[in-house]
């Protein structure tokens, strides 16, 4: 088995006095798409934020390419090659699509050029001069994902990219994730929709109460459907 690109072990995290992560442990191998599945409040987004160093109080181990990230600041973690696309997207409404894409700095070599991004997201090429406020929810999600591809990161953390998105755009986002995987990116995907997750991921970690309670290969999804539905409350 290949060595893990990202290895999270016994990760604990707090929001103030609230203990949210209770020993999260999982790994991601290079070139994989891995999902964190779970109900609202399970700790999936908090895990992403803890990996990126966005929480002041975290304990445990997060290793990327063998390097320990606990103790590093978010900008140092970004320079190591990890980028997060948050659920709230963070589009700058007063800037055009092109300006939004050009805004993030390159933190390392390997970032995609604008033409490469437009090949992945033809909608964004067509709307390159449009302000963020003029974009649909699906187009904003595409822009949020596209924007981090310029940074040079090769591990992408995508938080609920299909939340509130029309089915036709969900299909486009699925196609994009598969294309990114084929291009060599490694992706950790937070999802509640395991039907979508099954179309893009190699493995799935089920999260409950701030810890991983199960891991399923994508080939096991169908035979484990009842168990997954029980976990996710669907």
How would you sum up this structure, described in words?
With 234 residues, this protein is α/β, with parallel strands linked by helices. It has a single domain (4-232), classed as Rossmann fold. Helices cover 33% and strands 29% of the residues. The protein contains nine helices and ten strands. The strands form two sheets. Strands 6-7-8-3-9-10 form a six-stranded mixed sheet, sandwiched between helices. A four-stranded antiparallel sheet has the order 2-1-4-5, covered by helices on one side. The chain is globular. The model has no long low-confidence stretch (mean pLDDT 91).
Q: Which strand order does the major sheet show?
A: 6-7-8-3-9-10
Secondary structure: number of strands: 10
Number of helices: 9
Helix content: 25-40%
Helices and strands, in order, run as EEEHEEHEHHHHEHEHEEH
Structural class: alpha/beta
Give the overall shape.
globular
The CATH architecture: 3-Layer(aba) Sandwich
pLDDT < 50 stretches: none
Q: CATH class, please? A: Alpha Beta
Topology, please?
Layout: E1 4-15, E2 18-29, E3 33-37, H1 44-51, E4 57-64, E5 67-68, H2 74-80, E6 82-85, H3 97-102, H4 114-120, H5 122-126, H6 137-149, E7 155-159, H7 167-182, E8 186-191, H8 194-200, E9 203-208, E10 211-217, H9 225-232
Parallel strand pairs: 3-8, 3-9, 6-7, 7-8
Antiparallel strand pairs: 1-2, 1-4, 4-5, 9-10
């Amino acid at each position: 088995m290949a060595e893990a690109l990202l290895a999270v072990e016994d990760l604990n995290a707090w929001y103030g006095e609230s203990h949210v992560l209770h020993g999260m442990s999982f790994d991601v191998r290079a070139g994989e798409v891995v999902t964190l599945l779970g109900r609202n409040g399970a700790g999936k987004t908090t895990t992403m934020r803890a990996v990126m160093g966005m929480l002041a109080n975290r304990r445990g181990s997060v290793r990327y390419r063998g390097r320990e990230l606990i103790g590093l600041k978010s900008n140092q973690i970004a320079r190591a090659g990890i980028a997060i696309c948050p659920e709230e997207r963070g589009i700058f409404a007063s800037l055009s699509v092109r300006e939004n894409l050009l805004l993030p700095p390159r933190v390392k070599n390997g970032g995609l050029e604008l033409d490469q991004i437009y090949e992945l997201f033809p909608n964004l090429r067509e709307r390159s001069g449009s302000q963020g406020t003029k974009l649909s929810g699906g187009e904003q999600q595409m822009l949020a994902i596209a924007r981090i591809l310029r940074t040079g990161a090769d591990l992408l953390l995508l938080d609920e990219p299909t939340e509130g998105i029309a089915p036709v755009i969900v299909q486009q986002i699925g196609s994009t994730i598969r294309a990114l995987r084929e291009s060599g990116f490694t992706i950790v995907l937070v999802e509640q929709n395991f039907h979508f997750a099954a179309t893009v991921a190699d493995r799935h970690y089920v999260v409950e109460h701030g810890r991983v309670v199960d891991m399923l290969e994508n080939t096991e999804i169908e035979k484990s459907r009842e168990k997954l539905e029980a976990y996710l409350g669907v």
